[in-house]
């Protein structure tokens, strides 16, 4: 039975943590026994009720495979690095306090990984407001490794949604954990940059996770996020810039035109074959 290793870094998150933990523990793949769960919650020694709420939520669901680490750290990505170093599951991901998974996300991930020889996938971009009302949902048009490595997703092209991204644990061997722990804003993109050295990011037409927008979150500082990306990404060539410009136009085109241009492939559910098929 495959196991999911999920990491949640958090600090003073009493207002948001319960919903996030619930979304992990109530996955249909876990409740049905189809997959195992290793859930590691890395708390930065919160001064509020974060840990207490986590423990109450876990106790309510009776899942013993939850580990809570509450100790001082230097920020979210230091906590994430600690959690990923402890991960032993077959499939890894991380989700921040306030964000949440679709109930069937793990089932979709298992189906896709079982049917396709891929190591890294992401789903639709789904965003909700502070009331958890979904306010935007869009299918990305695919991601190029070349443009991931040169830092175009975020500053120029749409972001890779971290809440909808999963990978096989083997990719953890590519991560420089010491460097990851030092990031304040763009640690997620650093992961994508590291993974892109050996794997391709595959797009799946499915709602997997939701990013919640609320006041005071680190991701509000876009300028610092982009500055950190620039510091470690490869310098883009003229050809990279032209390709990014082309992709930016294509992102706004109907899928029929994208397919006609033999653009980036996507895995989508085929109702006739009852399987997840690669549309290329």
Summarize the structure.
The chain is an alpha/beta fold. It is built from eleven helices and 13 strands.
| Strand order within the widest beta sheet | 3-2-1-4-9-6-10
Decide which structural class fits the backbone: alpha/beta
Which oligomeric state applies? single chain
Amino- and carboxy-terminal Cα gap? 30 Å
CATH class division: Alpha Beta
State which percent range the strand residues make up. Answer: 15-25%
CATH topology: the name is: Spore Coat Polysaccharide Biosynthesis Protein SpsA, Chain A
Helix share, percent = 25-40%
Mean pLDDT: 93
Q: Major beta sheet, specifics?
A: 7 strands, mixed
CATH architecture: Alpha-Beta Complex
How many DSSP E strands? 13
Low-confidence stretches: none
CATH superfamily: Spore Coat Polysaccharide Biosynthesis Protein SpsA, Chain A
Number of helices: 11
Q: What is the N-to-C succession of helices and strands?
A: EHHEHEHEEHEEEHEHHEEHHHEE
Question: What report would you give on this structure?
Answer:
This protein is an alpha/beta fold and 280 residues long. The chain has a single domain (3-279), classed as Spore Coat Polysaccharide Biosynthesis Protein SpsA, Chain A (Alpha-Beta Complex). It is built from 11 helices and 13 strands. The protein has helices at 17-25, 28-31, 50-61, 76-86, 105-115, 145-149, 177-180, 187-195, 222-232, 238-250, 255-260, and strands spanning 3-10, 36-43, 66-70, 91-94, 100-101, 120-122, 125-128, 134-138, 165-168, 202-203, 209-212, 266-270, 275-279. The strands form 3 sheets. Strands 3-2-1-4-9-6-10 form a 7-stranded mixed β-sheet, with helices on both faces. Strands 5-11-7-8 form a 4-stranded mixed β-sheet. α3 links the parallel β2 and β3 (66-70).
